[in-house]
Amino acid sequence: MEHWDFLQLHCGLYINSEMSGIPLHMQPKKFGRGIVQRLKGKQGRFRGNLSGKRVDFTSRTVISPDPNLRIDQVGVPMYVAMTLTYPERVTPSNIELMRKLVRNGPDIHPGANFIQYKNSQDRRYLRYGDRKKVAQELQYGDIVERHLKDDDLVLFNRQPSLHKLSIMTHRTKVLEHRTFRFNECVCTPYNSDFDGDEMNLHVPQTEEARAEALVLLANKSNLVTPRNGDLLIAATQDFITGAYLLTQKDTFLQIEQVKLALCLLAGPDASIIVTLPLPAILKPTRLWTGKQIFSLIMRPNADCPVKANLKAKGKAYTTGEELCINDSYVIIRNSELLAGTMDKSVLGSGSKQNIFYVLLRDWGEDVAATAMWRLTRLTNHYNFDRGISLGIGDLIPSQGLLRAKEKVLNTHYSTCNEYIQLMEKGRLVCQPGCSEEETLETKILNELSVIRDNVGKACLKELHPSNTPLIMALCGSKGSFINISQMIACVGQQAINGRRVPNGFENRALPHVPARLRTPDAKGFVENSFYSGLVSKEFYFHAMGGREGLTDTAVKTAETGYMQRRLIKSLEDLCIHYDMTVRNAMCNIIQIPYGGDGLDPTYMEGKDCPVDYKRVYDHVRAKMPYRTEEPLDAASVINATNEMLSSEEYDCLSNEFKQELTTFLKSVAWKIARYRQNIKSNSSVVSELERLTVSQLVEFIHTCKEKYMGAKIEPGTAVGALAAQSIGEPGTQMTLKTFHFAGVAAMNITQGVPRIKEIINASPKISTPIITAALVNDTDSEFAERVKARIEKTTLGDVAEYIEEIYMRDDHFLAIKLNIDRIKLLKLEIDVNSVSYTLCTSKLKLTSKNLEIVGDSIIIIRPNRQKDNSNFPFRQLTEALPNIIVKGLSSINRVIVHNENLGGKTKFTLFVEGDNFREVMATPGILGEKTKSNNTIEVFKTLGIEAARTTIMSEIKSVMENHGINIDRRHLMLLADLMTSRGEVLGITRQGLAKMKESVLNLASFEKTADHLFDAAYYGQKDIICGVSESIIMGIPVPLGTGIFKLLHKADKDEPSKRELLFDNPQYHKPLRSGRRLQRVRPRLTLQISP
Q1: Is the separation of the CB atoms in 980 and 952 below 8 Å?
Q2: Residues labelled catalytic
Q3: Residue 684 pLDDT more than 80?
C-alpha cells in the first residue's frame, strides 16, 4: 500500500512540485520542476516563451547624443552594421549593387554575409570561397543578406517600454565608434538620458515589416503623444538655452557669424537656397539680430511656402502683450519672429503653444522635423561660439544677498516663535477640524515654506543677468529658482510625508536637539546653502528627506509597473470597428462611438477639441490678407457662417462641432460690432481694426472642416492599449503620498499611485472616503454649522455635563445633565425630550417608565418599581450611556465646513469623512443632486451604474491634474466604460478580469496559470482564438490595426460552378423577324406557398 501512496505522490509532484502537506518520511531529497512550475511565472512558458520571446537581428549598446543627426536618424556603429543584415532579393534594378556587396564580403562595409539561392534552402557564407565567382553567378530571385547601410529602416527601443512611443522607426546612419547616437530632441518619448543608458535596435526582415514600420512607427509620424496630443519630440536643454540667448533683444551678429549660421541651416543639402535678410543695423557696421536668424529656421527663403503664425506667452510673461517688460510675449507672423524671447514654453515638449507644434499641424511632419534639426545645429554652434560655462564662481553669494537672506530668516523666525508662544499660552485659534498641535505645525510649515521662495526672489534680484544657472532657470532648460536658492542661499525646510520632521524618541527629532523644542532648526529647517555647507544636524535632516525620495521612487516603480500590466491585459483587445463602435475580442460593444465623438486624442489641438479656433483664425488672416476685398460687418459674418454650415458640404461635421464653430464666430462678430459701435471716427480705419473678409471666412471654415475630418479616428485603432498606456505611463511621475485636500489641513486624502489603484481596483473600502456635500443655502455660515450638526456623529458623552449614579436613603437612580451651552454652541437640534426618546429607542432596553425628565436639562433613569433595585445594571449603563448617539449618522465621525471665496462671495460646502452617501444626501439642508462621493462602489449602490462611471472618470482626472498630468477624457471614458460595461463595477484585478474575459489562454497568461488551465480542462472549455494575448501565443496575426479586416473570398480557390439563372431560359432569346418590333416577354411565375 505504501508503494501505491509513493507512486501517487510522485505523479502529483510531476504535475506540481510545490505541493504542500507531504509527510516527512515521504518527502523527496530534491524537488524537481513540475509541469505547473514550467508554465507559471514571469520565466514560465506562457510569459517567458510564448507571450514574449528572444529575437534575432537585434543589437544593444550604450547611447550618446549627436545634435548633427536629423530627428529621424540613429547613428549605428560600424561593428553593428556589419553584423546585422537585411535579406534583399536580387532584381534587374539592383543586381549590379548586389554583386558589388557580395565581392566586398563580410569584412568590408558595405558588404554581405550570406547568400541564399533561389531554389535551395542552403545559405552560403561569404567569408570563404571565391566571392568574385559567386557575384558573377548571382541570379534574379537569389537573396543576398547585406550589411546595414545608410537610410535603412530600423526599430529603436528603450526599456521599460511604457507607451507606444518607446519603440519607433529611425533611419540608420553608419558611423565609427561603439555607441548608438541620436538627436537629443528624441529623448523625451524614450525617457532616456546619456548617463549610461542602453537601448535596443531591431532590423525588420521583410518588405511588409518595413512598410508597416515606416507608416505606423516612423519617428516623424509620432512627434505627438496619444495621451493628449501634446508635442513630445521637441527642443531640450542646451537647444532651449541657445535659442533663448540668440533671441535676446541685445543679441547682434556680424556678417561672418551670419554666414556660418546660414551654412549650418543648409546642412548637407547643397541645393537649398538660404536668403540673407536685410541687416537690422547698417552703420557703423552691418549687424543682424538673433531674431532674424531664428526666423530662417522656419522659412529659409522667400520661395518657401511655410508661413507659420503663433502668439504665445513665454515663461517670464508679466502683463501687456505689446509691452511685456521681459520681452516674453512671442509673436511669429508668416514665419518671422517679430517679438518675444524663445524659451521652454515655446520650444519645449508638453505644450501646444509651441512653434514646432504649429508647424506640424499647419504644414506637416517633415517641415516640423526639419525646423527642429535646423534649430539643434544652429543653437549648438551658437553655444560653442558664445560660450556657456558653469563654475563655483557662479554660486558665490554677494553681501547684499546674504543681508537679504538674514532679513527674511529673522522675519519668519519671529513669526514662528509668536505662534509657539500663542500655543503655550493656550491662545492659538485652531483651524476647522484640527487640534492645537496640528494647527501649529500647519502654520509653521506654511511660514517656513515661504522662506525658500522669498530667498529665491532675492537671488533673482542680486544675480547678474549673465549668471549661467540663472539663464537656465529663466529659459526653462534646466533647474529652477528653488535649485539656485538652495545652492546659493538656503536649502530650506526638509519635509517628510508632507510635514516637518517628526519626533523620533524622547520628544525630539534628533539626539542633538533639546526635548519638546518646536523651533524651525529643531524640526528640519536647513538655513545654510550647499555653497556654505551644512552643519551636522542639518546634514542628518537633509539625508532623511533624501532617503524618503529614494524609497518612494523604488516602491513606485514596482507599483506602477504592475498596475500598467493589469490595465494592458484588460484593455488590450478593445479596438475601433468599421461601424465606429469600440468592441472587445468577442465583438461585444463597449462604447458607441469612441469617446462620444469618434475623434482621435492625438489630433486634439485645443482642450479635447480638434481645432484651436483662435490660433487657426489668426493664422488664416495673417496668411491670406485679401487686401482688395471689403471687410464684413457683424451681421454678415453670422449670416455667412449659418449659410455655409447649413450647406451639404458641411453635413459631415457633427452638430456639437458646428455649434462650437458658430459660437466662436459669433464672438468674432460681437468684437467687430463693439469696435464699430465704440469708435465713431473714420469708418474705413475702424473696419481695419478687426478685419474679416468673405474669402478669409470661407478659408477659416474650410480649414476647420479639414482639421475635423483629419482628426476622425480610423477603424482598427487599438484604443484600449492606447488608453492603458496613457493612464499607466504617467504613473511614474506621481508620488505615493497622502496630501492635504483643497487647502484644508485637517482633511487628508489619498493621492497619487495609491488613489489610482483604489479606483481601478474598484475597492469597496477606500482609505479616505470623502463626501462633498452641497448646501441648500451655501452663503450662510450658521446654516452650514446646523447642517453639519445633523450629519456629524454626536454622542451623549459629548453633550452631557455629567452622568452619575445617585444613592439616597430611600432611592437609587442614574442622573444625566445636558450641557445646554455646549448644545447651543455646536448648533445641535436636540433637547432633553429628543435625548430621552433616543435612549428609549437604543439597545439599552430602557422604556419610558424608566425615564423621568426634570427641568430642561436633567434626565433621571430609575429601575422598574416591581423589580429589585439591586439587580438593575447601573454600572453597565454608566459605561454605555456616553456612547449613545443622540444626533447625526453613526458612520460619520467628522464633518468640516469649508469656505471658498468665489468672486467676492464666500460659499460654504461640507466635507464629510465617511461612506454613508445615501443618508448624507437625504439629510435636510443638503442639496442631493450636487453632492458627490469619491467611493465608486458607494455611488454605484446609491445612484446606479452611470453615476459610478462618471465618478471613475472624474476621480482619475482629479488625481492626475493634482500632479500636473493632463490625460484626454476619451482614455478615461474608455476605462470607465469597460469597468461598468457588465452592469456592475468590475475592478482591473484578477477577479474582475475573469468576469470580463472568456479566453482561457488570456487568463492563463495573466495570473493563476495552473488554476485556469485545470478548470478549463475539468469543464472542457473551448478557446476561440480571437483576442490579442491568445493570437500572440498561437503565433497568428492579431485582429487589430492592419489585421482587423477579414477576406471573405480566397483568390486561390477554384471558381464556383455556374448556377442556373432565370435569364438562361430560351424563351427570353426568341429570334426577331424582320420588320417586327422588339416585345418584352413576361414569363409566368407561379408561387407555391406551403402550409
Answers
A1: yes
A2: 193, 195, 197, 740
A3: no
